[in-house]
Design brief:
The protein has one domain: Maltoporin, Chain A (Beta Barrel), CATH 2.40.170. Helix content is 4%, strand content 55%. The protein has four helices and 37 strands.
Length: 687
């Protein structure tokens, strides 16, 4: 095992053993700011240190520092995780051990955005083929968001906490957070809170209207750690107020709700352990098309999600290695109704759906030889989906629009909407240690995903597409098949004398990939099954130049193509790299970062996707530690005030966003720019 100690005050890449994810009670090991090489199933983690997290508005942005990962951004608090070209419902995101469900039918309350960055301890990404034990429907990988949680080691109850305040100039953003705890080796009580606000952000030629945000977040919990068992009781609550989403046809009026969960683990012996977990989520959300925009026909949309989940995982040691059995499932309902403040009679019942998942897996971590280690697993999942009858007040009108609504309504209500999918997932990850410093990783997976409720049950042409943000209205499809992906992975890790070099190559062939395809209406696409492939490579590199200086690099490339026609997949990140040089001496730490993206010309003709030029941005950060309990961080992002366009930022849909540009006849005319020069500062206290 080789450890490279990096300069304090930077975001670090960190690998953890799969056993950490199988038993997330051990996640506190991530507190060490180190790059650690483990022997099996390498994962990648970025720890969100307070002094760095304050420059990040939305937690998903940390993915940009991870090999193969990125963010589809539709608003300041609306970032959808992307991994190797797959995003949205294809990526399994767990927040504090629970599958976070989005209440918004356009994913305005994206799963990774539920916990603010300064309240997150770490983000863990399974690099490569995700083991089946990491979740249900992991076709696009697994990401774990770990909120802060302080645990004590003393036999006596001790009180502690941390607090931070920060400011960002690009949007006059302000945030403050506090985490208080009373802890001992057995008991831990904790409470956390954060408040944050920001105006629309500036770019070189004006202001990107409306990208303001307003959010409060609360965290409350208790855990008990005994000799043979642990018990966790926790609740988190997100209260998002008026917040812009300029890539979407509406903005957030509010999104409020949270997750309550109970987890218990009991170790019967050194060889047997049972972990059980139960959670409940309820979130209400309202969006409107006139909060930050001019609308000739004002509309509100009220959406709601209720979800209950459970998990039982039994771990045991056998002669072949560590064997796990898991029974997991969730029951999730979504409702969405569109109304108008100007017409009390107007109402469209858009969604009233339920999706039940029941899943069983078994996984074996085995050491075939002293230099050959294998993780293998199989998962079976039954997905039951259904939708209630829909209605529309427009259907009562004797007009072409009324007749269209009646036709779609009647066709949907008369169809069989109760659908069951039986899906099987497989994962194999083999690690071959060629020497103490060099290893090869081989991955093979077969992953499935059932359609989302939008893809199956969107009965009327609308832009309720889980954040696609391509400007098209969509129709659902009751005849969709689950997606089926065959995944191949080849990686290498060299780690010696302060040098770490870890390239990975991958190829995914996806049958029945769910994609919008043209209809008779040029403004409407319909979800259909097509064939696709994704392939590429990503790289982690770090070198400890001296005791005081280190360099880190992450480079990612992915190409997504249709296999049935000559076209590219939509919203794929271009080739990109991040190079960060850090230097620390005495109480000071300095960091300089270059972020570069190639032009993206491989765009989707089907989605009428626009190309973007390449760009490079420079960021600088400095941290000064007053003592071991207080420090201050300050920095400048986009030092040279570069005007650039992130290909994943989407297009402007706000007709008052004149500095960016708006064309009412073409929703894809103007892509949203990146942030201009941003000066930020953060004060952090710990006691």
């Amino acid at each position: 095992m080789k450890t490279n100690k990096l300069t304090l005050g930077i975001l670090s890449a960190l690998t953890v053993n799969h056993a950490v994810l199988a038993d997330d009670r051990d996640v506190e090991k991530l507190d060490n700011v180190e790059v650690v090489e483990q022997q099996q199933n390498r994962e990648m983690s970025v720890q969100l240190l307070p002094e760095k997290a304050q420059s990040i508005i939305d937690t998903p942005d940390v993915l940009k520092k991870m090999a193969g990962a990125n963010v589809n951004r539709n608003g300041p608090l609306t970032g959808l995780a992307q991994y190797r070209g797959l995003s949205g419902a294809r990526v399994n995101v767990q927040v504090d051990g629970s599958n976070m469900q989005e209440s918004c039918s356009n994913s305005m309350d994206a799963a990774m955005s539920h916990v603010p960055a300064s309240m997150v301890d770490a983000v863990i990404l399974n690099r490569g083929v995700a083991p089946v034990s990491t979740g249900i429907e992991t076709i696009g990988g697994s990401i774990f968001v770990i909120p802060k949680n302080v645990k004590g080691s003393s036999d006596n109850l001790e009180f502690g906490g941390e607090a931070s305040v920060g400011f960002t100039s690009v949007n006059s953003g302000k945030k403050a957070s506090v985490l208080l705890s009373a802890q001992s080796s057995l008991h831990n009580f904790y409470f956390g809170a954060q408040t944050e606000t920001g105006d629309s952000f500036d770019f070189k030629e004006g202001t990107n209207f409306n990208t303001e945000y307003d959010r409060n977040f609360y965290l409350l919990g208790y855990n008990y750690t005994g000799e043979k068992q642990t018990f966790d009781l926790k609740y988190n609550y997100n209260d998002t107020g008026e917040t812009g989403t300029p890539s979407l046809p509406m903005d957030i009026v509010y999104a409020t709700g949270g997750v309550a969960s109970i987890e218990h683990s009991y170790r019967f012996s050194n060889d047997w352990k049972l972990t059980s977990d139960f959670s409940h989520q309820n979130t209400d959300h309202v969006m409107s098309n006139y909060l930050f925009r001019n609308a000739t026909s004002r509309k509100d949309s009220f959406t709601q999600v209720n979800s209950n989940s459970f998990a039982f995982v039994l771990d045991t040691k056998i002669s072949l290695g560590q064997l796990s059995f898991g029974l997991e499932g969730d029951v999730t309902s979504h409702q969405a109704t569109i109304t108008s403040p100007d017409n009390a009679m107007f109402s469209i019942n858009n969604f009233d759906t339920q999706k039940d998942r029941t899943s069983f897996f078994t996984e074996l971590l085995s050491e075939l030889t002293s230099h050959l280690k294998l993780s293998s697993g199989i998962r079976f999942t039954q997905v039951d989906m259904d939708a209630a009858d829909v209605s529309s007040s427009v259907a009562m009108m004797d007009s072409p629009m009324g007749r269209m609504h009646r036709m779609f309504r009647d066709n949907f209500n008369n169809a069989n909407r109760s659908i069951t999918d039986n899906n099987v997932d497989l994962s194999f990850n083999l690690t071959q240690e060629l020497s103490e410093v060099l290893s090869i990783e081989y991955g093979l997976g077969y992953k499935t995903r059932s359609p989302s409720y939008q893809e199956r049950y969107l009965w009327l042409p609308l832009e309720a597409t889980a954040g696609m943000a391509d400007g098209f209205a969509y129709l659902g499809n009751l005849d969709l098949n689950p997606e089926k992906a065959t995944q191949f992975e080849l990686g290498m890790t060299y780690d010696n004398n302060g040098l770490r070099f870890a390239p990975h190559f991958f190829y995914h062939q996806i049958n029945d990939y769910i994609q919008g395809t043209p209809t008779n209406n040029p403004k409407v696409l319909k979800f259909n099954n097509v064939d696709a492939k994704l392939y590429g490579a990503d790289l982690e590199f770090s070198y400890q130049i001296s005791d005081n200086m280190a360099i880190n690099n992450v480079t990612s490339y992915v190409r997504g193509e249709r296999r049935d026609i000559n076209d590219n997949l939509y919203r794929i990140a271009p080739l990109n790299t991040r190079i960060e040089l850090t230097y620390g001496r005495s109480n000071w730490n300095f960091s300089g970062e270059l972020v570069a993206y190639q032009a993206q010309d491989d765009v989707s003709v089907t989605n009428q996707e626009q190309t973007t030029p390449g760009y490079g941005v420079t960021n600088l950060t400095a941290t000064y530690g007053f003592n071991d309990k207080a420090n201050i961080a300050f920095g400048v992002n986009n030092v040279f005030d570069k005007k650039y366009y992130n290909h994943l930022n989407g297009y402007n849909r706000n007709n008052l966003n004149t500095d960016v540009g708006f064309d009412p006849t073409n929703p894809r005319a103007y892509r949203l720019p990146g942030e201009g020069v941003n000066i930020y500062a953060t004060l952090y206290l710990h006691w």
